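Re: that backbone. Tokens:
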């Protein structure tokens, strides 16, 4: 036997986050270890005497939504006098694998099929087993007993399991219960006062590290405040430490923010597209290890559970860049033969081949956003606003008739434009200003007036970007372009909206993103997706149709970020504003819902969406996931993690209850590797 001098201190964070009182700063000594040093891990243990015992059995959780965790699964066998087992969770990643191997036959009742096991052991009130997990969260230093989010165990069952684990583990006096769904959180209110409870959002808030995109990169480390980015130009090979995430930032190869980020913001989607690291770290601006490396070449790695940074030489940095610089993106060539204003359901022509090819065929004339919206509009049962598309021909016509392409050519040939970011920024700003004043072809105006009068009378309209360089598979370019609203009762307002939307092709940050990806600027064309706008929506949000924290697929769910109203957009959150974030296990019995954080724009104790709205969203996400599977998912032969990135709103006309409307869907690049 061996013992450890490991001392674990409960921090004040636990005290602040528990819904029940916790003793301040308690020391937890280890007991004698069950395992001898360097012994191979056993199949299971009945006691955990020390940290070494725990680590011998522990694995990383299937779901990594809260980083820095290690878990050991536990089984309480009611048939055998409540015998407790800490199972080897590396060898047996799920309870059934262990139970069917060790607790079936040989004098014990046989354990049936996996389907039978799942139907009884998580739901039946007279079940044989109680199944849970002991997780140690490294950041806040918390030991937590957890159940599967869909487990319907009563408070009496929870108490039996908690007391058994408490008595068998050296950490027992500090073991809290962490409800992993709203239903378990409600049941936890019936637990005896001796069992302390800590919610997911409280646990998340007590965590120091937020991995956004898992990747490694080499760059020069710089510290910049978000407000300084208006006058500070970053280089492609910078890794930047910020106090908070800005809505507009030039291309860099790594991001660290002191304030935690909204995971589905456009900046993070761009990091995922570039496969560059992105993380949140509390106190990052004053972090000693980071400050010691300021201005130096470093290698930054963001992992699901931890991060690391180390200095490298300039030669190593140059070699890394040469080996990892982006492969140039080749855009679909523009199709300028299409000139009609086309109803959105007719943009993608299905039935003549694979869905993926049908979408690709529509992009050259109508862009990525309109092409995917067309598929949404043709999906039965999906709430999508009526829309039409203005083809890319009219953007090219506008650029040519006003001499803007020739002007772009001149800029690209100007040495100072190529060499100095401040010159590029200023010249592009001048170009956009002139585009916003230039005349729009009279023929297009006549077509558009007739279309709006016939099909959208009296409605204000949203003119949305749909280029051949966004919403593409492997290149979403999220947030690269900007859409605008026009009111047809004031025709100049419509023209202004169209010009401003077209001009966003030449935003500085967008130009820099194309440069980074080796895209010829002249190859970009912009169609417009047009529909009635959302003048006073009740909620806006973004969702993924799969759980990004569970690449194994064993714990599926939808990941949703949603905010009240329309002023604080989830994809462009204002400083200090948090949104509701939750995992929705729509296909599990009981529809478990786990909140990771809450909006600070709604009253405490309330959520942005009602239960009925969340269910309505779940139905829509299921339809979208299945609809695009023949293009990007399993039905297309894809065997990896697959999800669609979906934007939605809840909106109602005056006097009507808000209804779901799906705005957009595009293939998501994943959380990184």
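Recovered sequence:
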């Amino acid at each position: 036997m061996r013992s450890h001098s490991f001392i674990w201190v409960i921090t004040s964070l636990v005290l602040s986050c528990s819904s029940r009182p916790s003793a301040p700063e308690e020391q937890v000594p280890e007991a004698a270890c069950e395992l001898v040093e360097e012994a191979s891990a056993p199949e299971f243990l009945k006691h955990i005497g020390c940290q070494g015992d725990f680590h011998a059995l522990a694995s990383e959780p299937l779901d990594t939504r809260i980083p820095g965790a290690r878990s050991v699964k536990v089984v309480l066998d009611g048939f055998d006098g409540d015998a407790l087992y800490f199972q080897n969770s590396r060898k047996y990643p799920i309870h059934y694998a262990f139970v069917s191997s060790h607790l079936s036959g040989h004098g014990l009742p046989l354990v049936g099929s996996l389907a039978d096991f799942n139907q009884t052991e998580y739901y039946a009130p007279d079940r044989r087993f109680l199944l849970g997990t002991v997780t140690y969260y490294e950041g806040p230093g918390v030991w937590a007993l957890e159940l599967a989010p869909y487990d319907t165990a009563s408070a009496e069952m929870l108490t039996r399991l908690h007391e058994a684990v408490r008595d068998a583990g050296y950490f027992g006096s500090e073991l809290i219960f962490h409800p992993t769904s709203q239903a378990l959180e409600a049941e936890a209110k019936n637990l005896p006062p001796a069992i302390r409870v800590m919610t997911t959002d409280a646990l998340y808030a007590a965590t120091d590290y937020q991995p956004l995109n898992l990747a490694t990169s080499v760059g020069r480390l710089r510290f910049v405040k978000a407000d300084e980015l208006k006058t500070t130009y970053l280089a492609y090979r910078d890794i930047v430490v910020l106090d908070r995430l800005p809505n507009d930032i030039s291309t860099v190869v790594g991001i660290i923010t002191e304030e935690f980020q909204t995971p589905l913001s456009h900046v993070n989607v761009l990091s995922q597209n570039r496969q560059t690291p992105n993380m949140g770290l509390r106190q990052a601006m004053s972090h000693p290890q980071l400050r010691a490396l300021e201005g130096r070449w470093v290698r930054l790695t963001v992992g699901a559970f931890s991060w690391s940074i180390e200095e490298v030489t300039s030669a190593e940095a140059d070699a890394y860049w040469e080996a990892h610089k982006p492969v140039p993106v080749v855009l679909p060539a523009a199709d300028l033969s299409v000139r009609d204003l086309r109803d959105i359901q007719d943009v993608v022509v299905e039935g003549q081949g694979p869905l993926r090819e049908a979408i690709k065929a529509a992009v050259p004339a109508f862009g990525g956003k309109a092409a995917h919206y067309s598929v949404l509009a043709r999906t039965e049962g999906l709430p999508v606003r009526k829309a039409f598309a203005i083809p890319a021909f009219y953007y090219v016509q506008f650029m040519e008739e006003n001499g803007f392409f020739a002007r772009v050519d001149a800029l690209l040939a100007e040495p100072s434009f190529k060499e100095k970011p401040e010159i590029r920024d200023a010249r592009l700003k001048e170009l956009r200003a002139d585009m916003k004043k230039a005349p729009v072809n009279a023929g297009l105006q006549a077509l558009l007036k007739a279309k709006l009068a016939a099909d959208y009378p009296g409605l204000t309209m949203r003119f949305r970007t749909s280029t051949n360089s966004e919403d593409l598979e492997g290149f979403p370019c999220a947030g690269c372009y900007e859409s605008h609203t026009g009111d047809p009762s004031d025709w100049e307002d419509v023209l202004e909206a169209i010009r401003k939307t077209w001009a966003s092709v030449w935003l500085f940050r967008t130009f820099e993103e194309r440069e980074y990806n080796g895209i010829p600027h002249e190859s970009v064309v912009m169609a417009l997706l047009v529909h009635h706008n959302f003048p006073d929506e009740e909620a806006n949000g973004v969702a993924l149709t799969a759980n990004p924290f569970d690449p194994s697929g064993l714990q599926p769910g939808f990941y949703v970020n949603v905010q009240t109203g329309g002023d604080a957009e989830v994809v462009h959150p204002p400083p200090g504003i948090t949104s509701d974030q939750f995992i929705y296990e729509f296909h599990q019995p009981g529809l478990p819902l786990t909140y990771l954080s809450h909006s600070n724009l709604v009253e405490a104790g309330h959520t942005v969406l009602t239960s009925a709205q969340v269910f309505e969203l779940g139905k829509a996400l299921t339809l979208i996931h299945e609809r695009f599977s023949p293009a990007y998912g399993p039905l297309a032969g894809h065997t990896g993690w697959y999800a669609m990135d979906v934007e939605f709103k809840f909106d109602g006309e005056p006097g009507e209850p808000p209804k779901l409307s799906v705005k957009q869907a595009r293939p998501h690049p994943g959380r990184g590797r």
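The mean pLDDT is 89. Residues 125 and 153 are 7 Å apart (CA to CA).
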